Amino acid sequence: MTETTTLSLYDRDILLWVEDTVAKLKSHNFEQLDLENLIEEVESLGISQKKELLNRLVVLIEHLLKRLYVNLPNDYNGWERTIREQRKRLQVLLIKVPSLTRLWDEDFKDAWKIALLTVREEYPQTQFPDRWQFSSDLEPMLNDRFW
Q1: What is the DSSP letter of 133?
Q2: Band (14; pLDDT cuts 50, 70, 90)
Q3: Where are the alpha helices (DSSP H) in the chain?
Q4: CA nearest 36: which of 17, 12, 51, 23?
């Protein structure tokens, strides 16, 4: 027996597995569902949304810190473009997955730590504050020009 025939559809071709699973769900063929992998995939959807929130927040804070504290005027425009882009993508994410707003405060704390370590490593000559000096609430973080 070849390896291909011993692998499940999920392991052989994820797209075909998704199409097969959707067809089974639509036809109410619940007995034939690959529940183990279906549960894993549904769980991973939520995890990826949470990771996206944290990752975008890290990038936003990194670029806010650079714009606020690194004295390189030629780089301001690029940092501001990144800030606008991350804010826009965070807004879209929160529109599509509003329950993520309940994670904002905790994710901000984690993102702050990660972003601060990163910018301190990238710009060791720059003095960054140990704490975020402005409001970390959702609305100001997505709208305020802190500089």
Answers
A1: -
A2: confident
A3: 3-6, 9-12, 14-26, 35-69, 73-96, 104-122, 138-143
A4: 17
Q: Whose structure tokens read 């597995």? A: 17
Instruction: Report the C-alpha gap between 120 and 61 in whole angstroms.
Output: 13
- CA atoms of 96 and 118, how far apart (whole Å): 29
Q: Could you state, in order of their start, the residue ranges of all structural domains in the chain?
A: 34-143
Predicted TM-score (pTM) of this structure: 0.80
Reading the block at residue 106, the tokens are 């905790």
Q: Quick: pLDDT tens for 75-114.
A: 999 999 999 999 999 999 999 999 999 999 999 999 999 9
- What one-character DSSP code corresponds to residue 28? T
Give me the residue label for tokens 């370590």: 117
Cα distances from 13 to residues 7, 20, 41, 42, 89, in angstroms, run: 10, 11, 14, 17, 30
